[in-house]
Amino acid sequence: MMWKKTAVTLLIIVLCYIGVLLYFVRQEQRKITKDQGTSAQEVLTVWYWDGSIIEIFDRYIRDTGKQVRLNYVNVSIADYARQLKSAISISNDLPDICLLQDYYAGNFLSLPVWEDLGGGQYGSWVSDFPSMCGPYITSPSGRLVAVPYNLDAAGLAYREEKAREIFGIESPEEAMEMFPTWDALIEASMEKKGQGKEFMLFNCLGDVASMMFNQTEKPYIVRNTMVEPERFLNYFRYLSRLYKAGLVGDTAQVSIEWSEDYKDDNYMMAPWSLWLSQYEAFSVNPNEDWVLIDPPGGSFKWGGMVCCIPASSPRKEAAWDFIRYMTQTEEGALADKEAKCGQLIYYKYENCDADYKRLNIKGFGGQDVGTYFMDSLMKERYERPLSEWDLELDEVFHLAVDAIVHEPGLTPEEVYGYFLDMLKSGIPNLMISPQP
Amino acid sequence: MHRSIQKKIGAGIAIIILVMTHLGALFAYTYAYTNQYRQQKELDETALGQYVNEFQTVVQDVQKISHNIAASKVIQEFLSHEDHGYFQVTQAVQEIKNIIYLRVYIDNAVIIQGDNVYWTYSPFEEYFKDRLTEDWYTEIGDSNEVFSHPHSYGYARDNRFITYILKIPDPKNPDGELGQLLLNINIQYFKDILERITNENGEYYFVDTRSGQIILQRGDGEAGRAMVEDMSTRKEEGKGNRAAFRSYDNGYFVWRAPAGTPFAAGIYTSKQKLNEFAKPLRHFFTAYTIATVIAVILLTYMLLRQFLKPLSQISSAMLLFAEGRKTKLDVRTGDEFQVLGAQFNSMADSIESSVTRRIHDEKVNKKLKFDMLMSKIHPHFLYNTLNSVIYLARREGNRDIEKMVQSLILILQDGMAAYSGRIDDPLEVELEMVFAYCVIQSYRYRDKFQLICDAPECLKKAYIPKNILQPLVENAIYHGIAPMDEPGVVEILMEREHGSLRICVADSGIGMDEETLAAAKQSMGDTKGGVHSIGMKSIWERLEYLYQDQFVFELYSEKGKGTSVLICIPYMEQPVQMPAENADLYEGGT
């Protein structure tokens, strides 16, 4: 009997030993798996110019618990398209997520480098998104190659005190009534200048040029043909007049000085969209008197982005998961809104409540910028149709605009001539109708 | 008691195993920890090697690109004169941009020509020109190619850059320069590499060895400062293909300084991290030790209990035996315990037998004592009476009665001496008793027998047990000679043989046939029988009592030829020493 007990005890002890050994072996295996998981942790590379994406990504990790790391490569907004184009042209590694902005999206959407996000494993369809997004998320052949991200309307921000002082404007409605068009604004400003009032409207001629450039529903280039190129001559005339009248400064667009200019009240107006929050230019305003209204000529699409996944990315699934979170979930919508660059997104555009719309931004006093943005600017904005040469057109246009500043001796017509020459140089196949 | 032994042995074994297990576990843990340490060091060195390779690739690429830009026709043309129109500037900037677009780690570039500074991000802005008054640029000195200290610019001032500065030589004037090209490298890129190659929580440091400034770090910086100090004292060591190693605060760091750059990178592995790595090992050895100790204690207890079970049985049997209850052990272990069990059984049997005999002896002794007490009648009354008989016989002139009564008194006095504790006498005293007896018997059996005593004078001092001769003479007279018609002879012979005294009492009486002789011999060990038998038995018992097995008492007889009794006892000239165990038998007999 005793021997039986001893044998049973021995057996139990042996089993305990085996149990202990197995437990530790399993623990080790788990650790190895975890280490392998950590070392093999997917790293999503994203090229972007706004560090807010780090905040959003961190929140994504918190919300989803995904084992992914973000490799954020800061690429200047001015260089983004060219950097992307260079990488594609020499078959360099592309980031796992590309953000295409409206001013160059047309150049890239037609390239066969993007993952088809329609149906299949991604489960998305063009019809899932607001109809206005269609051209920005599909390739010319109709494939869904991108998903819309941020709402992209732009309006005009003006300093209330300065506007009251110069123009006697008491309310936003009065401002919009006073400046329904660029002509009206220029006339009124010239009149005040003539009365000896010292003031400047904008600090950057390029900003005004961007506003004018985007305030159209008519395409600039259709296939290889320029449509109504004389519109640019018109822009140059307006711009030249504004600059020469001392109503607009010579600061380069989105330069460091451009941002610094808004720290004091030398300039009364600025084009404004949500994404400008990243520069903190408007928040440095002790008077809290920035007011957002419709610009002369009407609101326009500016700075809208869509997200694409390169077909060559080895991390498409992880990339899509983050994109889906950022652009198509309630949690992502909240993360976007609460990030430094507070973005409202297309996912919430057609069915959002008042809470989501409500957005107060530092520098704008008590104005509910978000609601105005959604209910007014977005509803009536111009949307310029895309073309495959948007990037070149935009670059050349702004080079020509900068020439007004840096070559003051040039007439609008001469600038227009340079513009066309540079455009032909950049787009050799472009057909331009005879100059008027 | 057996539990105590079990506990003692168990505790002893448990302590030994405990110490051995701990020592073994400690040794194994130390070995495993050392292995882990070495392995981690190799991993860190490999990671560092990978970092250095990637870093050097970037550095070489930057240098190559800078030279390409400097050699570009557009740039050479641009720098060949000083007055630049808007479109020339934009063309030069675009040329540089087209080259650096291919490298994401180059944030932007700057062309410096005299006082003109053209920053590719915003060529007509004064912003970067103002940055050139900062230390990172002013400290570069006369070097033609150099990496700056880290610095910041732009919107996000937390973005830091290292600028590669290349002085573009003037082909027409070897001592002059056309301008400078600055390539701003985003430090974030180096951080990404470091974070990729190091463990999730590994500490790393990226250092500018010229100033000792830590550019990138993950860790509290204390180890970084020690690493920087080490880099400054052992500058050349980290420049080779192997990493420089140094123990620090129970951990260690390894570092390398990529050749041709003023930077170095190091990885610090702290004691806590090493301990973290060894945590599973520690847990394993702790669990293993605990499990082993429990197992050893349990098994030792059970096995000892098993092995010592016979001991427990023996112990219980002994306790029972001590209480008077005899137990038969049945131990079949095939070892010493079985022998011990058998010995116990044997010993118990032996003790039981001994006790039984002792009880028997005790009964005999008590009976003797009782008999003696019964016989202890004060003899004075008898002596006075007998002396009165002697007086009357002497007055009447009856000499025979006087003689016979005197002999009787002598015999009675001798008997009283035995009662008073004397158990032996010199041979001559015993012979006197025999003579006195024969005097008395001679009146009864007148001329019937003759006593012949052949006792050498030298033997008369020898001590022999009291009253052993008289009964033999009495038997010879009564049973040997008296039944005959003619007279007979009773002969007492004595001699010394070595250490023994031989006494032979022989008669010429009727003798005994074989059957009677056998019955007589048998009766010596039997209490039943007649007076004759009782006398013989009494002698035998006393001889055995006094001499145990060192005596001879033999009977020889032949029908019609007489009977002889031979006694052989140790020769002693001193009274025999009475056995202690029987001393009380004679107490109070004085």
Q: What does the radius of gyration of chain A come to?
A: 27 Å
* Intertermini distance of chain A: 117 Å
Order of helices and strands of chain A: HEHEHEHHEEHHHHEEHHEEEEHHHHHH
Helix and strand composition category of chain A = alpha+beta
Share of residues in helices of chain B: 40-55%
* Gross morphology of chain A: elongated
Poorly predicted sequence stretches spanning 5 or more consecutive residues of chain A: none
Biggest sheet statistics of chain B: 6 strands, antiparallel
Number of helices of chain A: 17
Largest interface: A-B, 50 and 45 residues
Textual characterization of the structure:
The complex is a heterodimer of chains A (436) and B (590). Chain A is α+β, with helices and mostly antiparallel strands. In chain A, 46% of the residues lie in helices and 10% in strands. Chain A has helices at residues 2-39, 52-64, 80-89, 102-109, 134-137, 160-167, 172-178, 182-194, 205-214, 230-244, 256-261, 316-328, 330-338, 354-357, 369-377, 390-406, 412-426, and strands spanning 42-48, 68-74, 98-101, 147-148, 153-159, 221-222, 225-226, 269-272, 290-293, 300-301, 305-308. In chain A, strands 5, 8, 9 and 10 form a four-stranded antiparallel sheet that branches. A three-stranded antiparallel sheet of chain A has the order 3-11-4. The longest helix of chain A has 38 residues, at 2-39. The mean pLDDT of chain A is 90. Chain B is an alpha+beta fold and 590 residues long. Chain B contains 16 helices and 18 strands. Chain B has helices at residues 2-71, 73-79, 86-100, 127-131, 135-138, 187-197, 222-233, 271-307, 309-322, 336-375, 380-396, 399-419, 427-444, 469-481, 514-523, 531-547, and strands at 106-113, 116-119, 145-147, 151-152, 160-170, 173-186, 203-208, 213-218, 244-248, 251-256, 263-269, 424-426, 449-454, 463-465, 488-497, 500-507, 552-558, 562-570. In chain B, the strands form four sheets. In chain B, strands 1, 2, 3, 4, 5 and 6 form a six-stranded antiparallel sheet that branches. A five-stranded antiparallel sheet of chain B has the order 8-7-11-10-9, with helices on both faces. In chain B, β15 (488-497) and β16 (500-507) form a beta hairpin. The longest helix of chain B has 70 residues, at 2-71. Chain B is rod-shaped and about 200 Å long. The model of chain B is unreliable at 527-531 and 585-590 (pLDDT under 50). The interface between A and B is large, with 50 and 45 residues.
